[in-house]
Amino acid sequence: MVQTLKVRDAADVEGAIREAIAAEQPVDIVGHASKRDIGQPTEAATVIDLSALNAVTGYEPHELIVTVQAGAPVSDVISMLDAKNQQFAFEPMDTSVLLGTSSGAGTIGGMIAAGLAGSRRIRSGGVRDHLLGGKAVSGFGDTFVAGSRVVKNVTGYDISKLLAGSWGTLAALTEATIKLVPKAESQVTLVLRGLDDATANRAMTKALGSSFDVSSAAHLPVSETRAPGDALARLGAPVQALTLVRVEGIDVSVANRARSLAELLLPFGKAESVDTEASVEIWQALRDVVPFAATSPLGNHVVWRIVCPPTAGAVLGTALKRDTGGEVIYDWGGGLVWAALSPAADAHAATVRAHAAAAGGHAMLLRAPKEVRAAIDVFQPQAPGVAALSRRIKENFDPRHILNRGRMRRDDLP
Amino acid sequence: MTIKMPAPDEGILARRDEIIAALREIVPGEGVIDSEREMMPYESDALTAYRQPPMVVVLPDTTEQVAQVLKYCYDNGIRVVPRGNGTSLSGGSFPLADGVLLGLSKFKRVREIDFDNRVAVVEPGMTNLAVSEAVAHEGFYYAPDPSSQIACSIGGNIAENSGGVHSLKYGLTTNNVLGCEFVLITGEILRIGGRAPENDGYDLMGIITGSEGLLGVVTEITVRILKKPETARALMVGFAEVEAAGECVARIIGAGIIPGGMEMMDKDAIHAAEAFVKAGYPLDVEALLIIELDGPSIEVDELIRRVEAIALDCRSTTCQISNSEQERLLFWAGRKAAFPAVGRLSPDYLCMDGTIPRGKLPEALAGIRELGKKYGLRCANVFHAGDGNLHPLILYDANVADEMQRAEDFGADILRLCVKLGGVLSGEHGIGVEKRDLMPEMLSDIDLAHHQRIKCAFDAKGLLNPGKMFPTLHRCAELGRMHVHGGKLPFPDIPRF
C-alpha cells in the first residue's frame, strides 16, 4: 500500500523527508506524476505530493524572471507568461503525447527535474541554462537555497544546475526562479522536401552555421507507419521526407532572414515558407514527438532519446534504422535523434548504446514498459570515474538515498 | 592589507626540498620554479593588495603531468592552488605559503576546431580573445567577453563563470561550454560532456563552471562558437537622472528587446573615461547608457529606431547612434577603458562586483552615494546595466591613514546592499578571498553546508584552493554526518578565518 503525503508548504516537505530519514525508508517526489513512467521504476512506499505548492510567488516581466513553487502547473505558468508576450526559451516538452498520459499535466518541479527541452534548445539552451535558482529540501531534511534571482551570479557553486535534470534524486525542489525571454513577433519555417537523412543533415548544418540566427532545425524521413500529427500531415509527412528550419524574431528581420536562408539552402532544393501560426504548431509537434505518439501506430514501440554531436545524427539514425528496423526523427540539427524501435525485452539497448557511443553521444530510454525499464539501464551508463563522482554528489546531498531511490541508477542503494 | 588564510603546515614546509625534487621528477626543466626572485610574479593575482609567495610554482604542459602533480600532492597532503593567467580580481588564485601554485599557462593550444558542429576544443591557458581569434577566419567567435578578455584565460573564465558585455544576449561561460577534461585532486582524469549539445547524468559541467578552482583542474575545454552577427550598431544615450536611465533599461527589456550589450556609467566614470579616451561622451549628464544591437542590418536598424524612441520617452537628454564601425568602437572605448581611466583619478581604487535585480539600479546607486558620504570616499560606477552586474570603483589613497580600511568597509557595505536588494555578492569576479567572509551575509549555515558538501564530493581532504569561497573550514566526514538545525553553527570549535 503506497502512502501519499500531500504537503501544504515547504515545512511539510522537510517534515516528510525527516520522517523518511528516521525510518530509513525511501520516498518518491511527485508533482502531477506525469513523468512517473520515465526512468528506472521505483518502489517507495511513500509518495510526497508537491502539487499543492502551486503559487506564483513572483513574476516581474521587466526583470524577465518568474519565481514559482514547484507544484505550479507548467501550462498555467506558460499561459501567464504568454499574456505578457514572454516565454521559456527552452520549450519544455509535454511528455503526455508520447506516454499517453493526461494532457496538460506536469509541474514546474517536474519540468526542471526532467530537464527535457524542445527544438529551440540547439540555439537557446536547455532548462539548466535558464534556471537561476530555487529552494529545495535535501536528503538531510533541510531546506537550502540554490542560486539566486539574478542572471549573473558567482556566489558559491551553481547548485541549481545540479538540480536541473537530476530527476529529484538530490533534493525535492520547492520553489524555482527561471529566466524568461520575450516571445518572437513572428516566425517562419522553411520546408525542404525529399532529402535523404545525410543530405538533410548537411542542409541543417549549413543553416545552423549561418549568421541568420536559425532557432531550430529538424528532419523527418519518409515513413509508412509513423503518425504525422496534424501540423506535419498538412506539409505531407510522413509520405514525404521533410527538412524544417525555423527563424524567429521581429517581423522585418524574420522575413529578411528567411529569404536569405532560402537562398543559402538552394543547393538542397527550393524551400517553401510556412508562416507563424502553422510554424508554431509544427515545432510544438516536434517538441512533444507527436510522430511517435502513444496513440499512433508506433505507440507500442520503445522510444529512445539520443543526444550526439549534430553532424553525427544522420549516420547514427541511418545505422539504427538499418539494424533495428525502427524509425527515427531528427531535431537539434541532428543533435537529437528520437528513435522508435519495435518492442523487445532489452529495448535494443546494446544496439542503441553502441551506435550512440560511436557517434560520441548518449542515449536514454524515454518510453518503455515498466518491466523493460527495470531490466536495463534507462539512463546512459557512465565512465567509472564520472559515475563514482556522481554517486559521491548524491551521497553528499542524500546520504541515506531517501529521495527517488533508484530513479536514475539501478545500483542506487545506500 | 592582510587576510587570514589557513595556517601553513610546518611539516610540509620542513619537507620543501624533498617536495620540489619530487615535482621536478614529474615536470622536468623549467617547469618547476622555486627561487624567491622567479616566484615573485606569482605572489599575487589581479587582487594585488594581497601578496604571498607560494611554496613552489609548477608549470606542467600535459594533462598527464597535471594528474601526476595532483596525485603526488594528494598522497602527501599538500595544498594546491590552480592558476590561469592570474587575472582574478577576487584573489581566486592567491597562493598559499605551504602550497603548490599550479600554473596552466603552458596550456595554450587549440586542440581542434569543428565548424560544422560549431565547437572548438581548446586548452585552458588560452586567452579568451585568442579563442575568438582562432575561429575568426570562418566568421565565428566565442560569445562570453569579459573586459579582461585580452589577458584572462579561458580556464579562469570557467573558474569564475565569466560574462561580459555580450552575456545579456548570449549567456555566460556556463551557457557556452559543452564539456571538459578535468583532473581531480586524486589525479584521476575525467571527461565531462563533449560535442553533443547536452550532457547526460548530473550536470557536472554546470557545477565545475564557477567553482573557483576548488573542485579540480580543467585541462581541456569544448566551447560553443557562434557565427558573427552580420552587423552591430550602438547608441550612446545620456540622462539627467540616474532613475531615468534605469527606467530606460527596464523599458527596453520590457519591450522584448535583448540588446547585444547594455552598459551604464555614472557621472564620475563618464568624466574619467572621457578624459582618458576622448570618446565624445556628454559631460553634462548623470548617467550614460551604451546600448548595442546586433544581427542582420535590417533588424538592427529597426531595433535602433525602437530603442531611440524608448530612450526619448524616458527623458534622455542626448542620443548618438553609431554610423560606422569606427564610431561604434569609439563609443565602447571609454567603457572598456573605464577601469584604467578611473585609476588616473586616484592613487588606488577598489573594484567591487555585485549583482542586483535590474529594476533596483536607481536604488542601488542612491544607496552607494549615501555610503560614499558615510565613508568620505568617492565611488565611480560602471556596470552591466542589462543584467544588473555592478562594478563600483571605490577611490582611495593607501598612503592616507585608514583610507584602505574605509574603502574595504565601504565595499563590504555595497555588497550587503546588493544582497538586501535581492542580489548577490558576485556577478563575475567570484568570491575568492576577497568576499569570502561576506558569504554568511547571503547564505545561511545550512545553505553553506550544502555548498561545502559539493566540495567534499570532489575533494574530501580539502587540498584544492583552501581558504577561498568559504568563511569556515569543514571536515567532510563530520559535515556528511551532521544535521544542521535552527541555523546554529555546527562546529564552533573549528577555526573561522
From TrEMBL, chain A:
InterPro entries: FAD-bd_PCMH, FAD-bd_PCMH-like_sf, FAD-bd_PCMH_sub2, FAD-linked_Oxase-like_C, Oxid_FAD_bind_N
Keywords: FAD, Flavoprotein
GO MF assignments: catalytic activity; FAD binding
Domain of life: Bacteria
Residue span, FAD-binding PCMH-type domain: 1-183
Residues in the signal sequence: none
Pfam families linked: FAD_binding_4
PANTHER family reported in the protein's UniProt record: D-LACTATE DEHYDROGENASE (PTHR11748), GLYCOLATE OXIDASE SUBUNIT GLCE (PTHR11748:SF103)
Protein name listed in UniProt: Glycolate oxidase, FAD-binding subunit GlcE
Organism taxonomic ancestry: Bacteria, Pseudomonadati, Pseudomonadota, Alphaproteobacteria, Hyphomicrobiales
From TrEMBL, chain B:
Necessary cofactors: FAD
Record-annotated FAD-binding PCMH-type domain positions: 50-228
Keyword 4Fe-4S (UniProt): no
Classification via PROSITE patterns: FAD_PCMH (PS51387)
UniProt keyword terms in alphabetical order: FAD, Flavoprotein, Oxidoreductase
One Pfam family hit: FAD_binding_4
Molecular function GO terms recorded: FAD binding; oxidoreductase activity
Top-rank taxon: Bacteria
Name of protein: Glycolate oxidase, FAD-binding subunit GlcD
Species per Swiss-Prot/TrEMBL record: Afipia carboxidovorans (strain ATCC 49405 / DSM 1227 / KCTC 32145 / OM5)
Lineage: Bacteria, Pseudomonadati, Pseudomonadota, Alphaproteobacteria, Hyphomicrobiales
Gene (UniProt): glcD1
